[in-house]
Amino acid sequence: MRHFLDFEKPIAELEGKIEELRRTTDAGGIDVAEEVGRLRDKAQSLLKSTYAKLTPWQKAQVARHPDRPHATDYINGLIEDFLPLAGDRAFADDAAVIGGMGRFRGRAVMVLGTERGNDTESRVKHNFGMARPEGYRKAKRLMELAGRFGLPILSFVDTAGAFPGIEAEARGQAEAIARSIEAGLEAPVPFIATIIGEGGSGGAIALAAADRVVMLEHAIYSVISPEGCASILWRDAAQASTAAEALKLTADDLRKLNLVDAVLPEPLGGAHRDAEATIAALGDRIADLLEPLVELDGATLRARRREKFLEMGRSGVI
Amino acid sequence: MNWISDWALPKISGLFKREVPENLWHKCPACEQMIFRRDLEAALHVCPHCGHHMRISAVRRLECTLDPGFSRIELPRAPADPLRFRDQRRYTERLKEAQAKSAMDDAVAVAHGTIEGQRAVVAAMEFAFMGGSMGAGVGEAIVTAAKLAVLQDAPLIVFTASGGARMQEGAISLMQMPRTVIATRLVKEAGLPFIVVMCDPTTGGVTASFAMLGDIHIAEPGALIGFAGARVIEQTVREKLPEGFQRAEYLLEHGILDLVVKRSEMRATLARVIGLLRVPLVEAATAPAAEVPALPAPEEPTEQPAQA
Ligand SMILES: [Zn+2]
């Protein structure tokens, strides 16, 4: 059963009709097949027109779509011989951050991701993708390990942000994020980050201080959630749509501001309508971006990465 | 400018007011006792009754940290309002208002000078400037301060006071986190100390970037320091927050700070830290000969019975 978003209701109705007709196909004849074809064209063109002009708030909903491929799906689809690694060596293993080694198109790489889970049980296990300090310390440890052995780092970011909890604060959430950002900036190996869904604030940049940052077409990347921003600046969480507009959090906006390096188009109707194609396309894009980077030595990579981030916000006005 | 309303009216209305205007006395927000403003000023805005450390301006911070004669530096300007952001008000309006109120371009003041004779670069955040929030201007100031420290071969001291990221700059404000982290690397790679003094409040993106990467972490007593806001945490975990949660003393206990230092002792403490990190060997104090009684001339060795 496909999950439809609020603004997709007209599409949902058409697709529902198609399903119904198809179920009665056995009884019907050529007329039904024709009708199904006609409805399918209509649904497709409606999908096209809807997705051609998604508002930032609608994009935020697509970015958080429950059926959207998650970090685990990208790892399963792109990384062979994946060996998960665990723990921060101090306190715990945080399943909100998954990581490990494997081969990307033959090359040994270090992989990191924030995983939200896709059913109640796994969502609880991964804490809905909201990491605690242990998660960021694991990320830092794995980035340093990658650096020592020359493994390029690939990260898949999809998180509402760092977990706001009592223990998380007591164990130094802020310090853990800062160190993870630092580890990314310092890594003497190529580092490619992809914002696959929601890039939520400090919890996202902790895994995305990379040489190349790719954003999926309908992903969002923001300093604060639209809801959070609305409740602070508009004193009304219901203004999330207005806040999403103002925050300039879409892939297009971030590309225009030169804060990300590439935008990967998604299949019509979003990544979840064809996860396999999305994952394959991202693989190709990562391979293209990685190729020139593996030629560079650690010092050059680090220097260029610094230069890139130091330039951010210095110029560029929307 | 209407001089009647701006200048004359306050003066006139002052004539009819009671003779204890609010500007002579200040009420401590913690213990609610009244403090004579001149005493408060002399005590560096620390309540003489309960020790509460009130927020002070960035400029005042520079004055009470550096030796007289320090120089404030001009900071590069970041593009104003890159997103053309507007909530209930325009960001440009909020900026202009903050600039007029604080006489600063953005929420950081940077100066170089000496602390008890030792060279230092000091950056101080201004909470009154849009909650000390970090946008490109603040990021630029921290990077500039770091470069200045390297240029002058001086330690960098940052006094933080910030509610976090500046939402009106969207993802640009988020990118100030890696930017300011790079700034800390520049200082450290030059072999210079990076000292952070966390003041009330230090939260959000500022805490989760340069503020937590100091060689030495100091905080003022009672300062609120953390990543997430207390309200968000309460709503998420649906638990009552522990006593003293996210206060300087709590962080000290949890191993996140080196020291909690009273404002009156901050300058001397910073001087000690810099001295120990930067002056590895101090010649043993050699006082003028006249003032030191000469050691008695060694006596002729005499036969001494071996001790039993
Ligand atoms: Zn008091």
Automatic annotation (TrEMBL), chain A:
Pfam families tied to this protein: ACCA (PF03255)
Principal location listed in the UniProt entry: cytoplasm
Signal sequence range: none
Keyword Lipid metabolism: yes
Record carries keyword ATP-binding: yes
Pathway(s) this gene product operates in, as recorded in its UniProt entry: Lipid metabolism; malonyl-CoA biosynthesis; malonyl-CoA from acetyl-CoA: step 1/1
GO biological process, one term: malonyl-CoA biosynthetic process
GO cellular component, one term: acetyl-CoA carboxylase complex
Occurrences of domain CoA carboxyltransferase C-terminal (ranges): 38-292
Broad EC category: transferase
Catalysed transformations (reactions): N(6)-carboxybiotinyl-L-lysyl-[protein] + acetyl-CoA = N(6)-biotinyl-L-lysyl-[protein] + malonyl-CoA
Entry keyword set: ATP-binding, Cytoplasm, Fatty acid biosynthesis, Fatty acid metabolism, Ligase, Lipid biosynthesis, Lipid metabolism, Nucleotide-binding, Transferase
Gene Ontology MF terms in the entry: acetyl-CoA carboxylase activity; ATP binding; carboxyl- or carbamoyltransferase activity
Domain of life: Bacteria
Family (UniProt): Belongs to the AccA family.
Record's function text: Component of the acetyl coenzyme A carboxylase (ACC) complex. First, biotin carboxylase catalyzes the carboxylation of biotin on its carrier protein (BCCP) and then the CO(2) group is transferred by the carboxyltransferase to acetyl-CoA to form malonyl-CoA.
The protein's name: Acetyl-coenzyme A carboxylase carboxyl transferase subunit alpha
Classification lineage: Bacteria, Pseudomonadati, Pseudomonadota, Alphaproteobacteria, Acetobacterales
Automatic annotation (TrEMBL), chain B:
UniProt gene name: accD
Zinc finger intervals, C4-type: 28-50
Similarity annotation: Belongs to the AccD/PCCB family.
Name of protein: Acetyl-coenzyme A carboxylase carboxyl transferase subunit beta
Pfam families: Carboxyl_trans (PF01039), Zn_ribbon_ACC (PF17848)
GO cellular component term of the entry, any: acetate CoA-transferase complex
Keywords: ATP-binding, Cytoplasm, Fatty acid biosynthesis, Fatty acid metabolism, Ligase, Lipid biosynthesis, Lipid metabolism, Metal-binding, Nucleotide-binding, Transferase, Zinc, Zinc-finger
Native species: Neoroseomonas marina
Quaternary structure (record): Acetyl-CoA carboxylase is a heterohexamer composed of biotin carboxyl carrier protein (AccB), biotin carboxylase (AccC) and two subunits each of ACCase subunit alpha (AccA) and ACCase subunit beta (AccD).
Cellular compartments annotated: Cytoplasm
